[in-house]
Amino acid sequence: MTIDKTFDPAAIEAKWYAHWESTGAFRPERPDAEPYTIVNPPPNVTGSLHIGHALDNTLQDILIRHARLQGKDALWVVGTDHAGIATQMVVERQLNARQQKRTDFTRDEFIAKVWEWKEESGGEITGQLRRLGCSMDWENERFTMDEGFSKAVIKVFVELYNQGLLYRDKRLVNWDPGLKTAISDLEVETREINGKFWHFKYPLEDGSGFISVATTRPETMLADMAVAVNPSDERYAHLVGKNVRLPITGRLIPIVADEHADPELGSGAVKVTPGHDFNDFEVGKRAGFKASEMFNMLDGEGRVVQTSDGLIPQDYIGQYRFGIEGEPTNARKMVVEAMDALGFLEKVEDRVIQTPFGDRSGQVIEPWLTDQWYVDAETLAKPAIEAVRSGAIDIVPKSWEKTYFNWMENIQPWCVSRQLWWGHRIPVWYGPISYDDDKYQANFTSLEGYKIFVAEDEAEAHAQALEFYGSSRPIIIEEQPLSISEPERLVAEASFGKAPIRLHRDNDVLDTWFSSALWPFGTLGWPDQSSELDRHYPNDVLVSGFDILFFWDARMAMQGIHFMKEVPWKTLYLHGLVRAADGSKMSKSKGNTVDPLGLIDQYGADALRFFMAAMESQGRDIKMDESRVAGYRNFATKLWNAARFAQSNGISGSHSISAPKAELAVNRWIIGEVVGTVEKLNKAFAEFRFDGMADVIYHMVFDQFCDWYLELIKPAFVDGEKGEMDAESQIVAGWVLDQILVMLHPFMPFITEELWHALGERPYDIIHANWPEPSATVDADAVREIDWVIDTISKTRSFKAELNIPPGTRLTANIADPQPSTIAIIERQAAALSRLGRIDSFAFAPVETNNIAQIVVGGDTVVFALDGIIDLDAERSRITKAIEAAAKERDALAGRLSNAAFVEKAKPEAVEKARADHAEKASEAERLTAALARLG
RNA sequence: GGGCGUAUAGCUCAGCGGUAGAGCACUGCAUUGACAUUGCAGGGGUCGCAAGUUCAAACCUUGCUACGCCCA
Question: What is the ipTM of this complex?
Fold first, then answer.
């Protein structure tokens, strides 16, 4: 197959991807091979490929393709995440566009709509990952809500509950009034906003005066339960134990002593609202309030509701907590105005306030007192910390360990329940604490009065209930307690003569990260014991952005170790973010995102991938630099043209895996270069230095192979006729090109597969080729010979350019005192020296003229007679510069060697090298000085 | 407030004890012959600042400055 003149990435990308996928190339049967496993961070099913995915997946694909080339049973697990909030929001937005809302439907109806959306529009990103060339195991594509995975999620919930590591608790949560769900600490983003600091006077109950408090949240005074002062604060010591008559509500609240009050801040006294502030919650507990007694004054959307003491004036009820668009007034405004009118507003200051926002909704988070499910993260974190300390998990780069430890050691209980419909529904059923009490039909804001059944399915919940309640009454599991149809109830009562016991299931779903934490084993069949699970757990590497270290990586470590008794992966590789060209974070709202698919369209997937690898150095973010992507497209074109050149010179794919026998120095030299490249590449792979890998292979292809090797073996044109390439070079070049293609394949899969096949009939695709073994050796004689040739040609070109001698000018060279080895080299390399150096011949005698240009190569002075074309002044200054350069190095080395301390204390090899370098530089300077003298 | 990272050529980045490199950009030259998405040659850096350790520091230590991120 003749290689096309132009390299068109788009044409080959689609072709080879389809070929690989349809032939099952991504997961060949290799039952006896060493397994190698990576699980892909499941992208949101709503997602589309952004530049960060391109980086993350390119790195993984490089590792997987490399392992596959090494003959391993390489498995790259792929799937998508149901992404609870994100997906529910997408579908809700669609409904809104049709003037509908989620609550127009039953839960089941809505969930059916989400599934429908998922089938139709979900998973766009999986097609985009294919465009990037990712060689995932699509045949076993997973979804975090597929049947098997859901089973794993439920099992984990039940087991953690039974082990006491998961519990229901009433405490303050981060409540997102926009999404109307609890979220975890990690989903809260603290931002600084310009706010105000209101100073209020609270009258003492006994009428003896006032106590001043300052607050950034005046509206919450409707639920104040105390005023706190610091116990060491003498100004207030006499007030502790007295009561305050709270304005507006008239509630009587105590003045308490608590360390939380900062004497330096404001008046030193603070209002305490345990139901709407995390610090105040703790103060309230210390003051003796039970969580169940703490006042709640807001509903799920942030509107005022009556507190349990009924003291909030009616006109406040239903007001939003603070200003929202389109609302004429709000609780904050009303409270401030009322306090002002009462003469209790002392002053208002401007102040920068640390304010929590929901990372998805952008709403101000409200600390809200609810019952939620929590995972005892502290207990689970301990072995996960130990795993990193012991080296069972190797975090690369190591600098992230400290961040990991710091977070894990201070980890808080993880709130895992979400008030959403889309997700893994919590497998908990509630029933009456006893069958005489049916108050359980009230809302579920309290634990009291309910019996909890945690079970893997309804049947088991039923069985547990039967055991608990006995069989004297029927037990009915209801979707909603009040929705039971009358006929059913009649039937039940008719049958048993008594009212049934009603259970109903928890309405909430689990945090999406609760399920994705199980990805490394849930995707391999767990809880069933499969051979896949056996072989591929622990995974080898996890590649992720550091931004999900806590969200995902740490939780995988915790769950994996807890349930599998082994770490989920041996190495955790963390990479940075891809930033915009100016270094700012890319975001849709800023409009500075770069679409990886656009880059693929423009430069090809191979170029984008190579860019990602080349830019990925450890511990640093990547700044987008499109010119470099273009540069790597040029690199691919270069390779393409090199292959065309090879093809037109009778070079084809090699039949040999080991290096062919070679006599010619140039061939022995390039074989050595391949060996060196493989060794360097292997080292870079072992160290996860993606930039190093890219650098090594780039220079091998561009410099050694294209710029020198192909030029050196290129047949000459004689009388306008192109000569034949010698057979040995054809064979060696074919082998070298094959090694290059294989080594480059993980980085540039498409072009390498195309050229692999274009260059010959192959028994297998390159995706299944063999990674080169550095079995051949570097031939020192060949290196010396080719170095001499390259150096001579380079220096000849160089002096011509500097002396304004047209590069095409053909010259003869004289070496008056050649080393014997040089004569032999020149004999063997005459053709190359002529073609590339434009040196027609060498004479081993002094030249007759003083109009000369001279270069020093190795230990030889090569002299070119240039009567009529040389500018001697220019040559003098050129040589003078060269002398200066050589002398400078010589003198520096001499200085070092004359320092007794250096010779005595430095490593012997450093001294040895300094001596050798000094001798070389001294000789070079000497020869150049002699050359200058010859010019007269 | 605590922690982490970064500061090297105009730009984007390697190098992390033996005296500075790459890509892009720039300058000059070249070209029937794989490749203008090219080739050859070249210019360009007191490696943020200061002190210390060392025979030797861009690299190690300390401090400072600037920028970025994370946690509170």
Answer: 0.95
